[in-house]
């Protein structure tokens, strides 16, 4: 990337392409910065200079470029020597897959500034996004604080419980089968990730998934946890944030926008993407009408039995073609005399 001179040259070429397609210079400059230019360097100072160069080039075509939240996707490689095992475990908060991914990133980037462009980073599974938040917060995705992240999930659940009249001391939020609420808790959420992790690691299709689920059920971890909560006087509601189904890959799409499903690739979420129609035609995607979702994005969904994975590859992936999987049925287990 250097100081950004290559990015500036590419900016001018892209500007000619955009304007020849009927874009105004102002809109084209914004789209180029957000969707077309990417840079990475081992030197912090070079990263700063490249950032400045791209912003000045954008300012040449768009006077308001410096007034908003426009941010070039250029940066310097950050090493991960500061990431201790204790820190990784704390951030993962019981999420086994996330802990493994963070450990992998630490290994890759420990000496990142020495290796630079020869680093190869595999695709990671960071797709636990808005669905579970919707279940815990009783909100549509468009109403969430940060619909594409999970950093606010606990806060969303607590806010929902408070709106129902519970106090801080009466609200619990835990992960894992050993979750245990204090005597004051009256409304709690427990996050269990076993099935999600098994499906994403599944290479034997639907039969393999059924086999894994059968083994998991035989361990009685979920039923034992439910019985424990029932004996404590709780009513228990069990739900899932999405389903899973077997699909055949249509081919991978890279660099086309904000990709929500980084592992399963059942859908794409795009922002200011100029060639959306070609994606729809090439892959037979269906455009979702944005009901209850942030309106600034475009939502493209694969048909049933298809996903944006390696062409011809059979995979287990998230549910059908409906984005409304956030509205799923609950199983209610009520604590009565003969139950548990």
TrEMBL record:
Under catalytic activity, the entry for this protein gives:
a 2'-deoxyadenosine in DNA + S-adenosyl-L-methionine = an N(6)-methyl-2'-deoxyadenosine in DNA + S-adenosyl-L-homocysteine + H(+)
Q: Name one GO biological process term.
A: methylation
Q: Which GO terms describe its molecular function?
A: site-specific DNA-methyltransferase (adenine-specific) activity
Instruction: Name the InterPro entries on file.
Output: N4_N6_ade-DNA_methylase (IPR050953), SAM-dependent_MTases_sf (IPR029063)
Documented EC number(s): 2.1.1.72
Q: Which UniProt keywords apply?
A: Methyltransferase, Transferase
Enzyme class at the top of the EC tree: transferase
The record, for Gene3D superfamilies, names: Vaccinia Virus protein VP39
Return the protein name.
Answer: site-specific DNA-methyltransferase (adenine-specific)
